[in-house]
What we know:
heterodimer, A: 83% helix, elongated, B: mainly alpha, globular
Amino acid sequence: MTIKISIIGIVLFAIQISLATFYxxxxxxxxxxxxxxxxxxxxxxKHLTKNTTHADQQFMVYNATKSKR
Amino acid sequence: MLIxxxxxxxxxxxxxxxxxxxxxxxxxxxxxxxxGELNFHEKYPVTEADAFPLATVKSSANFWIANATGMTFxxxxxxxxxxxxxxxxxxxxxxxxxxxxxxxxxxIIGMPxxxxxxxxxxxxxxxxxxxxxxxxxxxxxxxxALFNFIGIITxxxxxxxxVVISRIFFSLVMILVVVPVVSxxxxxxxxxxxxxxxxxxxxxxxxxxxxxxxxxxxxFEDWLILTGNIALKLLPxxxxxxxxxxxxxxxxPNEVLESIASYNPLLVITIVSFIGTFLSIPxxxxxxxxxxxxxxxxxxxxxxxxxxxAPSYRIFTLVLTKEKLGGxxxxxxxxxxxxxFRIGTGVLAEALTGYF
Lengths: 69, 356
């Protein structure tokens, strides 16, 4: 559920950055689009291959129970 | 990553954009016909023939376009900032400072953002959404909007020193006195209104338990997930704020300002301050607006009031920070205080005129 909400948010962010780039094309926005696209592809890949379950759940437990650095 | 995105924003679009604004301020703009009523370049000019709904839609679009890059980077920086805060306890403790320290620390963090109050509100509310104090939230917003170094230096070259000194004085009082006092009335929520608890726990620093490579990949993943969550929460509010501002801009066109130029100076300052509460313009355009008033023959008081008013806490900021500040009470107190301070800035500027 959380990842689905995050994906909706990322899509909204993608709409905002696309609008910004449409009206004001600048190199910084292009770089952010590139970085965000690669990261989004990785998140989707991880979600679809269910790679999140083991390692990340260990960290979720670790973070929930122990104080962070 | 946070510093990287900030530098990318500053050197990629903010500094070049401020250089362009500098050209406009000096009256050497190549597209002066594009300057709208509030003096920034408007994509869809609002004409007298436009009906109210059409004028509002055009104004909303103009405002959104003018702020598009700033707002986008506000989300990007907020995501990176919140990711850092959630992964590194020592950083989050800076944003949890209360009272004078919290407000001062917030304003120092806000200064390099180089954003208007609206964009810095997005960045600030995002960054402090886990456990940041109200003082640091407001400090970041006001520090970013009122202590833009480029803006202050430009103002010294264009306006009477009395105008700039009174603005700096009231900006300092606002951040160091008003923010700590009003923040005592904020009802802090235990749970972040932006990010769910289970999501927060998944945001972490892998290093040193995992390799540097895995840590870097996780940093980008956390950043995008948080940016998405902040966008989901703030973009609808940003849209509502934009429509509010557009409605007011259509109701009070430039002719209103021109018609009051000959009134009593104190009355002019009060009217300008009131109008400024509902105005919303991109960063540094308050200077352009100030030069418009200068050319229309307004006194230093009115110019100082608009310079303090335009980038400060307003309706748009209220819409964004309402949830973080625990309801309408504190934002409304801030709006009223800002309004009174605007008058104060104007009166002080009038009193200091002639001393410099």
